[in-house]
């Protein structure tokens, strides 16, 4: 299954572009992870990507079944060619059939591999595009909110440092504006979006699918 990942998109500290004297410093914290994961557009996109992944899996299984059928037919012809009860003319006929089946099997395998590669690439590109779009939209709302309220510094409470330590170790909950931003970005959410399952973590398209036959 597929899912957008906040970790691929946002980390560290969000700085408002102007600074006030220390006495006038107004700080807020926000969880960019929650904003992204609970954004109604993210949930809708994840549901659509999951549906697309299910379609891809179904098509891939059909292609894999076709490949296995062709290989089984090739194995049967190989057994017939080794049948000593056949005369040479019959064996030559079987060899010609086997060569044709072998070519078909190789072509079917190549189509399957190309399908895997193309599907992963297309889904990956679509996800990256939507991720960038949603983060831009969220940041726009966040920047307008903090500008209107005179915040000087906003820290991402879900971000981590290079040492994998929380960027914000301790913060009073009264500083957190995540719920306020969520209310703004989800105010126009369609009713159906609120009933969608939690967002899904990113997984390569073919991870849950059978490995191509060799």
What does this structure look like?
This protein is mainly alpha-helical and 214 residues long. The chain has a single domain (6-195), classed as Protein Binding, DinI Protein, Chain A (2-Layer Sandwich), CATH 3.30.910.20. 55% of the residues lie in helices and 5% in strands. It has helices spanning 32-37, 40-81, 88-148, 178-185, and strands spanning 13-15, 27-30, 153-156. Strands 1-3-2 form a three-stranded mixed beta sheet, with no helix packed on it. The protein is rod-shaped. The chain starts with 12 loop residues before the first strand and ends in a 29-residue tail after the last helix.
CATH class: Alpha Beta
Cα shape: rod-shaped
| Count, helices | 4
Tell me the strand order in the biggest sheet.
Answer: 1-3-2
What's the architecture, going by CATH?
A: 2-Layer Sandwich
Give the strand content: 5-15%
Overall mean confidence score, pLDDT: 80
Q: Biggest sheet, open or closed, and with what strands and sense?
A: 3 strands, mixed
Compute the number of structural domains. Answer: 1
Distance separating the two termini? 25 Å
Question: By helix and strand content, what is the structural category?
Answer: mainly alpha
Task: State the gist of this model.
By secondary structure, this protein is mostly helical. It has helices spanning 32-37, 40-81, 88-148, 178-185; strands at residues 13-15, 27-30, 153-156. A 3-stranded mixed sheet has the order 1-3-2, with no helix packed on it.
């Amino acid at each position: 299954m597929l899912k957008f990942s906040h970790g691929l998109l946002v980390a560290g500290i969000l700085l408002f572009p102007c600074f006030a004297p220390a006495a006038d410093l107004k700080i807020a914290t926000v969880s960019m992870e929650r904003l992204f994961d609970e954004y109604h557009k993210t949930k809708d996109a994840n549901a659509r990507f999951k549906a697309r992944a299910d379609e891809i899996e179904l098509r891939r299984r059909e292609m894999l079944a076709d490949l296995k059928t062709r290989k089984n037919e090739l194995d049967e012809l190989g057994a017939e060619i080794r049948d000593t009860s056949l005369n040479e003319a019959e064996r030559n006929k079987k060899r010609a059939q086997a060569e044709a089946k072998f070519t078909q099997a190789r072509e079917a395998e190549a189509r399957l591999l190309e399908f895997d590669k193309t599907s992963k690439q297309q889904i990956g590109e679509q996800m990256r595009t939507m991720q960038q779009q949603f983060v831009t939209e969220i940041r726009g709302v966040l920047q307008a909110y903090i500008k209107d309220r005179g915040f000087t510094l906003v820290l991402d409470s879900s971000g981590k440092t290079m040492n994998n330590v929380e960027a914000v170790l301790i913060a009073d909950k009264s500083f957190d504006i995540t719920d306020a931003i969520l209310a703004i970005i989800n105010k126009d959410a369609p009713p159906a979006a609120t009933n969608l399952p939690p967002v899904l973590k990113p997984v390569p398209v073919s991870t849950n699918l059978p490995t191509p036959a060799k």
